[in-house]
Write a structure and sequence with these properties.
The structure holds two protein chains of two kinds. Chain A is an all-beta fold. Chain A contains no helices and eleven strands. In chain A, a hairpin with a 6-residue loop joins strand 7 and strand 8. The chains are: A mainly beta, B mainly beta. Chains A and B meet through strand 4, strand 5, strand 9 and strand 10 of A and strand 6, strand 10 and strand 11 of B.
C-alpha cells in the first residue's frame, strides 16, 4: 500500500514569505506527527494530531508555525514570515490507533530552503 | 526535561564486524518508551524496535539485538556481522507514556565498508 507522502519534496522561498507543506498519511492512520530535521541532527518534534485535533503542539517554535488537519487525514504545516533559520527538512509521520507509542511511519520529507 | 544522547557521531567498520551503537536517555517519567529508527541514504526513517520501561528483557531480531538497562538509562543497539546495507544514520528516541512528543538523539552515522 501507499506510504506517507509529502509535497512538495523541495521548496525554495524568500525570507518573509508564507509556505504550506502538505502531508498525506497512510490511509486509516489516526495519528499524525510533524518534525523538523536540521542537518546533522535528529528529528525535532513539532506537533501531534490524533484525528482532527492537535493533541500536543508543544514543539511549535513560535506563532509563525501552524498546522491543521481538518478532516483527520491530510495535514498542512503552515509557516508565516519565513526566516532563514526555518530552513530544514520537515518530516511527517503517521501511526495507527489511539496510542501514541505505536510505530511511526515516516514520509520522505520536504526540504525547505529560505533564502 | 527529556534528553537522548548518542555520543558516537560516526562509526566506521569493515563488513562482518560487530558494532554497538550507544544510547543514553534522561527522563523523570516512570513509564516511557524507547525506540530505534534507521535513516538510510534515501532519507526515510524506518522503525526498528520499541521497548517500554517495564520490559528490560533483551531482544534479538536476526543480526540485530538490543540491550535495555534501566539502571544505567541505556538502550544500546548491536549489529552482528555488519553488512554494507547497514550503512545509515541510526536514531534513538524516547517517548513518555500517553504523550505525543518524542525526543530523538542526534543520531549515529554508521558506515560499513566492504
Amino acid at each position: 500500500g501507499a506510504g506517507v507522502s509529502q509535497t512538495p519534496s523541495n521548496k525554495v522561498t524568500e525570507k518573509g514569505k508564507y509556505v504550506e507543506l502538505r502531508c498525506d498519511p497512510i490511509s486509516g492512520h489516526t495519528a499524525l506527527y510533524w518534525y523538523r530535521q536540521s542537518l546533522g541532527q535528529g528529528p525535532e518534534f513539532l506537533i501531534y494530531f490524533q484525528g482532527t485535533g492537535a493533541a500536543d503542539d508543544s514543539g511549535l517554535p513560535n506563532d509563525r508555525f501552524f498546522a491543521v488537519r481538518p478532516e483527520g487525514s491530510v495535514s498542512t504545516l503552515k509557516i508565516q514570515r519565513t526566516e532563514r533559520g526555518d530552513s530544514a527538512v520537515y518530516l511527517c509521520a503517521s501511526s495507527p490507533g489511539q496510542l501514541s507509542y505505536n510505530e511511526q511511519f515516516f514520509g520522505p520529507g520536504t526540504r525547505l530552503t529560505v533564502l | 526535561a527529556q534528553k537522548v544522547t548518542q555520543a558516537q557521531t560516526e562509526i566506521s567498520v569493515v563488513e562482518k564486524e560487530d558494532v554497538t551503537l550507544d544510547c543514553v536517555y534522561e527522563t523523570r517519567d516512570t513509564t516511557y518508551y524507547l525506540f530505534w529508527y534507521k535513516q538510510p541514504p534515501s532519507g526515510e526513517l524506518v522503525f526498528l524496535i520499541r521497548r517500554n520501561s517495564f520490559d528490560e528483557q533483551n531482544e534479538i531480531s536476526g543480526r540485530y539485538s538490543w540491550n535495555f538497562q534501566k539502571s544505567t538509562s541505556s538502550f544500546n543497539f548491536t549489529i552482528t556481522a555488519s553488512q554494507v546495507v547497514d550503512s545509515a544514520v541510526y536514531f534513538c528516541a524516547l517517548l513518555s507514556f500517553n504523550a505525543g512528543k518524542s525526543t530523538f538523539g542526534d543520531g549515529t552515522t554508521l558506515t560499513v565498508k566492504p
